[in-house]
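Continued from yesterday's entry.
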Amino acid sequence: MLAELEGLLAGLEQLAGVDRRLLVQARMIRAWVLIDEGRPAEAEVEAEAALRTLTRITHLINLWEVEVGALVCLGDVLCALGRHEEAETIARGHRLRAEGHVATGLHLLLLHSLSGQGRYEEALAESGKHCPTLSPYDAGAYELARAVALHGLGRHDEAKDEARRALTSSERHLHPSHPRVGKIRALLALIAPA
């Protein structure tokens, strides 16, 4: 997949003006693929390149949704690098102007960043404040975030139930090799002996 994205990125570099938003979106996809492949340092470079490209075209059209999407991508990269406080800053700093799937992405980023800092109680409380509108791609993500927080709090039975819900949802909508399915299975294996 990365090879195909490399070719696509090379072609998109030639675009000008508003069409460069396609380059931004391709860079974000490449960053997420790199995160999934365990290469967060390279993903950070790609996410930052997406944001730099955005700054060059924002005067042409209001691209706030793409911009916030790129920031969510950068936040995911920061979490993968263990820089959860920076990811939390992104999530909290842009929640007010986001809506729809972008708001969901920021909400999930906030939950992930809080749990990454060991602030499980706060992550669980935040998960109850907002019921995100999930797309099929987000299947199991919200439940996984709650399961991680519950497990961090030592509430293993509840965590196991939430993780099972996450797995059921993920298996219904995602490919079995999707990284989220693997994360859920790993969490279930971790919880099982507890």
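--- second protein ---
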Amino acid sequence: MKNKLETEARQHLAKIQELIDHYHQIPFIQEYLKKPINPRNNEENKWLTFYKRTLAKRDEIVQYLLHDILERAIQKSSSSKSSWGENLEDIQREFQRADDFPYLEMPYGWSIHFILNMEKLDYRMINPLLNKVGWFDVDKLYGIDYTDQINKTIQFRVSKSRFFETLISELRQIPVVREREDIFNQMSELFNTSIF
């Protein structure tokens, strides 16, 4: 059991190391490693944020391999048959996978599935559609780029007045912003009358 868990965990670690090697090719990261400096622009900030996140994930996997894997293998070997039943076998398998590899995550979506979430680690996999899923067809969420046509579809589906009503209503819940509601009302008025 331990060998099986260790083999898969080492595959995850190799994937993370490959990504770290990529980051080490970026001139800003090379500069940062010689002498830590603050990012000078958004691109450098993005690289550094994702790089640090990737290092943290590597450390999680190493910690698991060095200290936790044996305990999980013993626990898994001694566990009895599941009481989940046949209808829930797939879900049970996914939760067991999360217990087997606690550094895996369930990505944003509509199914229970634990993965090594590379979208959170590799800046090249940023999905510009993920925060717009309420405004276009969900089946377009993966495998396509953000295009002018998608942008037009989103703009067509977004009601300007409803958007600002919802935004202002939600902002009222934030104490720091509450005092500035008039600014957002003015922004709404300008946007809806196309005066800017």
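The mean pLDDT is 82. The radius of gyration is 23 Å. Will compare against the first tomorrow.
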